[in-house]
Amino acid sequence: MSDSLHEPWLRGIAFNPAAPSDVLIRLVDQAAGEACLLMCQGRDLPDPVIDTTLRHPVVKIRRALAGNRHIDPARLAPLATDPSGLVRGRLAGGAHPRPRRVRPLPDDILVTLLTARDGGEDGMLTEQEIVQELSASWQIPQSFYRSMAEHEHPKVREHAIWRWQSLTDAQRSALLDDPDPTVRKRAKESSWELDGAAVEAMLPSIGSHSRPHVLGTCALSPALIEQCFADGRVYPLTWNRHTPADTVNRLARHPGADVRAMVAARPDLAPGVAAELREDPDEDVRTRARLHPFTRTWDEYEAIHRVDGHGPDCTCPITELSTAPSPDWFAACAVSQEPVLRRVAASWPGLPAQLVATLAQDDDEEVRIRLACHHPLAPPHLLLDVFVTRPAHRPHLLTLPAFPRTGRAHLISHPDPQVRALAAGDPALPDPPVHDPDHAVRRAAAANPSLTPGALENLLTDPSTAEGAAANPSLAVPRMHALLDHCLGTTT
User: Fold this and answer.
1) With contact defined as beta carbons under 8 Å apart, do 322 and 280 qualify?
2) CA–CA dist 134, 363 (Å, integer)
3) Are 469 and 18 in contact (CB under 8 A)?
4) What is the pTM of this model?
5) What is the pLDDT of residues 184-233, one digit of tens each?
């Protein structure tokens, strides 16, 4: 058989859902080339394969495993102390490309990475660089953030200081008086964030990219506020919790509609000012002002702010709220007349099943899209509908456990090849379209388990379908080994 078929066979077997451990272990080898790395990073793996990969002497193979988002993260714990900093860094940084919903790392792995004394024996990365990867990865759950300030290890308490403003007054006081001198020093260095005069003095030394964050989160002196107005940099003030009431009122009458709109939903807005904004000439401002009687707390404001104005094709990361409103508040949002609030409810994964069923039939398309992407109880038919109509969400939807694996045959003539490829894998399809003009459709059709062994053999010898045929779960295990013998030059 032609050597040109080796790569598609290897890739297909690597992702064959029926391939047993002894087949997959043969692929954990440099001789398997790209297929090895794709497999280690891109699919769930049986325990024997994971164990083999964890012990593999080749760094890039262990590094590929460290970026696997399909395996229980607890199984990857040995990689947190891997001899190579590149492996540790990939574990800390998570999968690439990053999925919309990232599974958190277990607490023991987080502590290991945060308290490491070095970046690995190879010297490729420092421990600080690895921690930076971790902090940007979304893999630290809110529960761990909340516990860091009281952790027994001083380096973990030191990292809690990164989120100085999210700490309670008692936690900040404790860190300022911590028994560890380094923790005390870091806490004192961070206390400027809540001192308006200190923020004013610090701002000139802060890079231009970080200034909006400072202006939107830190305490501000009267002089700095006036400077923001003079420089036309008031937008971050609209969501800053420390913005004084007189400044909020001033922003509510700002000539920029985008500024007034951001102010209009603040929970600290005075009733008279809220009434003015409900009559604003700008529709977006009026819409947001209408929400003011509904939203009362900063937690509720943040929940709305994360959803409002993002649009139906928003693919922002799906992460926890640092502090969430009550379930009753979300339930009230679900039955609101305001589409924005129903979108907020649809984005909360704790919404009860009865309200999920109601929102699945909502007249507002964005409500239905958000429900499909965010809620574990979203009905499978809704997931399929959103897949067909909104290509931006397809990669995320395919990762959801509730996404339908059958009942897609009616889409086989769809003009979009991605939709046809989805339909081509339906086991109920009587005649998989292995001659479709699109390569992805042919591959999916060749992987359809309804194909006969004879049909599979023909497809294995065709370069346009060989990968799909090798990924077909109906392929006999001895045939998988025989194909690997051809590709790797070994026998089992």
Assistant:
1) no
2) 40
3) no
4) 0.92
5) 999 999 999 999 999 999 999 998 888 999 999 999 999 999 999 999 99
